[in-house]
Amino acid sequence: MNAPHFDVLIIGAGLSGIGTACQVTAALPNKTIAVLERRERLGGTWDLFRYPGIRSDSDMYSFGFKFRPWQGLKVLADGRTIRQYIADTAADYGIDEKIHYGLKIVNADWSTPEGRWTVTTLHEATGETRTYTCGYLISCTGYYNYDAGYLPTFPGVERFRGRCIHPQHWPEDLDYAGKKVVVIGSGATAVTLVPAMAGDAAHVTMLQRSPSYIFSLPALDKISQFLGRFLPEKLVYTLARKRNIAFQRYTYLACRRWPTQMRRLLLWQVRRHVGPSVGMSHFTPKYMPWDQRLCAVPNGDLFKVLASGEASVVTDQIDTFTEKGIMLKSGRELEADIIVTATGLNIQMLGGMKLSVDGQAHELHDQMTYKGVLVENIPNMAWIIGYTNASWTLKADIAGAYLCRLFKHMDDNGHTVATPRDVENCAMDIGMFDQLQSGYVQRGQDTLPRQGSRHPWKVLMHYEKDSKILLKDPVDDGVLRFGGTSVGAAVA
Fold it and tell me: What is the pTM of this model?
C-alpha cells in the first residue's frame, strides 16, 4: 500500500504546530498538509500539563498568534484557556481536520533521488506502524521530553509513606485538601503551584536549593481595558502587543547591560510585596538577572500566600527523604503528606525522532541551526523553536511566515529542494542556548544544535532583528542552496 503523501508534514499539534499549519494553509492553500500528533488531543504542552494553576509565563498579547489576536484582558492566561485558544484557531483554519492523532514519530529519512521524506510512525494504541511521505518536513515538537520530566536521585525516596508526584504527570485523582505539601523547586512551575495549592492545602512549603528571580505582573491589562472603551478592538490589541514586546525586550537588554542595577530593582519589588515577615535571602539568587529565565507571578500571588503564612519558603539542601517527609542538610525535617518534585524537564530534540539523509544518520547537535529555523546539511526540513528570553510564539510566528516565503520562492523558481550549507566555515562549538545557565540547558548541551560565528548561523534571540532576517531579507542568500530532485542539484 502506498504511503499517504503530503507537500508539507508538520510534527506536533501544539502552539507551534497549529500556528505553522495555519500560516502555510492561509498563504499556500494549494499545498497539501497534515499534522502528526503523538497525543490523542491537540494542545501540546497545554494538554500535557494539568497541575493546579498551570498558566503562561509570558503575557498573552505576545504569546498569542499574531494572525489571530488574543481576546481577553488576563495577562497570564490559564492552561485550559490557552488550550481552547489553540483548538479554536485550528478549527478556524480547518487544521483540526488535518491532524492524525496517536502517532509517535520513530524516524524520518530523506531520499535524494526521490526528493522526499519518508516518515515512519508508531500508532501507540494499536502497535501498528504507519508510513507517510512528504516534500517538506517541519518539526514543532518543542525541546523537552514528554515521557518524563527531570527527576534527580533523592536518597531514601522509597521510605516516604506519602505521595510523590512530578508536575509533568499530575494525577487527576489527587486530593490535597487539608494536606501538608512540599514543592521542591524554585522555577516557573514551583512558583505557580505554591499559590494555587495554598488555599486548599493545610500548608505548602516551597523547598529550593537556591533562589530564582521572581517579579510580579498585573493579572489584568488595565491599560487595554481603559483604551477599549473608546478605541477599536483591533487597535487596542495592536498597541498592547507592541507595548508588551517592547517591555520584554527592554527588560532583557537592561538586565544584560546593567545587571547590578536590575538586580537591585528586582529585589526591591520582592521586598515591597513580601514585607518584613519573609527573609530576602530566599529571593536573592547568586547569579545575575537573565542568566536564567525570570519567573513571573500575577498580582504577586506567590508573595501574598507567603506573607499570609498559608505557604512558606525554605532554602536548603535535601539530605534524605524520611517516612514523614524530607530531612534537610541543616538537620530540619519538613513533614509532608505530598511531595511535588518540580525539578524541571529533560531536553529532547525532534520528539525523539531519528533523522537520516539517504540512510546516513544525522544528529542535530552535530549541525548548526540556520536563521534559527532550518538545519545545516538537512534538505527540506525546518524546526520551530521559540524564544527563551521572550514569548515563545513571537519566534514561532515569524518562523512560520519565513517558511511560507521559502515555499513560495521555491515554487516561483521551480526548486524542489533547499539545503543550508556552511560555505564559509562558520562552525563553532557553541550551543544555541549557551547564554542560559538553566539546569535543563546545561544537562542538554550534548543534544542541542550549535550556532556559528556569523549570520545566518548565529542565534540572536532578538525579535526585531529576527523579523528583518526572516521576513525581509532575500530568501536566496547564497547560503541556502536550491536544486531539484537529481543528486547533483540537491547537494550543490
Answer: 0.91
Grid coordinates given for 478: 547564497
Across 398-436, b (16+ Cβ under 10 Å) vs e yields: bbbbbbbbbbebbeeeebbbbbbeeeeebbeebbbbbeb
pLDDT above 70 for 39:
yes
Over the stretch 315-330, which tens digit does the pLDDT of each residue have?
999 999 999 999 999 9
Q: How many CA atoms lie within 13 A of 452 on its CB side?
A: 21
Condensed to tens digits (0 to 9), the pLDDT of residues 451-465 reads 888 889 988 888 999
Cα distances (Å, whole numbers) of residue 436 to 355, 427, 430, 450, 454: 27, 20, 12, 14, 19
Mean pLDDT over 26-32 rounds to 97
